[in-house]
Specification:
The protein is an all-alpha fold and about 300 residues long. The chain folds into two domains: about 50 residues, no CATH class; about 230 residues, MetI-like (MetI-like fold, Orthogonal Bundle), CATH 1.10.3720.10. The chain contains 16 helices and no strands. The radius of gyration is 25 Å and the shape is globular.
Length: about 300
């Protein structure tokens, strides 16, 4: 077996050496685009440590060190923005993470392929609605004359209530993305051992016992990886949806770090300060990712990312 593996590797290497122009032709554009859009912008991090002036340029602007970071962390609104971001992310993770797993487990129990495909079509469709269109739908449905108020017999403008912003944001996110996120778990469940399921049925296991002892172990590794990645991105809320759902009345709950960065950078023109806030956000994300990975490794027999 080892000899055959070595011979296959050698033959593959020979083929690559012989046809290196073909690989270069296909990989070079992707390599250039990755450099332009992923690596070259990293140099902009220097802006966070400068008092950036567009006329002087990135290297010519005066160096101010950690002044922008101190300015943000000492701001009276710092804790408000940080807590708003954490609350949206943590609550979204706690409520949204189990839903795709539950959907995949339920879909796996449907024997009829036709019914299963129709249900999957309904579940996957919201993912293809753009964020802005989704926000427009939310404003229409929750307006004082919208369907929700008509059913309830009220005329409440939910989008002006700060306490309603988080449930609306999280619930709409679950509705839009849970079905699509369940694809990964559904694919993993297709590899679950049918022999174990049949043995469990013979032993008298009910549906819940089959799910707990057969289905969940089959997708355990996927669940762990997805949890680590989502928990590590707690601070990486996209600003589009929060900004689109934001009104002058719900700002106490809807103003998060990404929307604050957008306003400071593009609306106020304070590029150095907004870069520092964005960098602070990214550093917190990396720290959380490492911490969650270590915690999961401790409780999951050393298995993590």
């Amino acid at each position: 077996m080892k000899k055959t593996k070595i011979s296959k590797r050698e033959s593959n290497l020979k083929y690559i050496r012989k046809n290196w122009q073909l690989y270069l032709f296909f990989l070079f554009p992707a390599f250039i685009l990755t450099l332009i859009f992923k690596y070259f912008p990293i140099g902009g991090i220097l802006m966070a440590f400068n008092d950036y002036n567009p006329r002087l340029g990135l290297l010519g602007s005066p160096f101010v060190g950690m002044e922008n970071f101190v300015r943000f962390t000492s701001s009276p609104d710092f804790l408000i923005y940080l807590l708003n971001t954490l609350k949206l992310s943590v609550y979204g993770l706690l409520w949204g993470f189990p839903i795709p797993i539950i959907l995949a487990l339920l879909l796996n129990r449907i024997n009829s392929k036709r019914i299963k495909k129709n249900i999957q079509l309904v579940l996957y469709a919201p993912n293809f609605i753009s964020v802005i269109v989704l926000c427009g739908m939310i404003f229409i449905f929750l307006s004082p004359i919208g369907p929700v108020n008509r059913i309830m017999g009220t005329d409440i403008n939910f989008m002006t209530i700060p306490a309603a912003f988080r449930p609306i944001y999280i619930a709409s996110g679950i509705w839009q993305g849970a079905g699509w996120a369940s694809i990964m778990y559904t694919a993993a469940l297709s590899n679950a051992s049918q022999e174990l399921t049949e043995a469990a049925v013979i032993d008298g296991a009910n549906v819940l016992q089959q799910i707990w002892h057969v289905d969940i172990p089959a997708i355990k590794s996927i669940i762990v990886i997805q949890f680590i990645l989502q928990a590590g991105n707690i601070m990486s809320l996209g600003f589009e949806k929060a900004y689109a759902l934001q009104t002058s009345m719900n700002i106490p709950a809807s103003e998060i770090i990404p929307t604050y960065v957008y306003k400071q950078g593009l609306q106020m023109g304070d590029y150095s300060f907004s870069t520092a806030v964005g960098l602070f956000n990214s550093v917190i994300n990396v720290i959380l990712l490492v911490m969650v990975n270590k915690i999961v490794e401790h409780f999951n027999e050393g298995e993590g990312l």
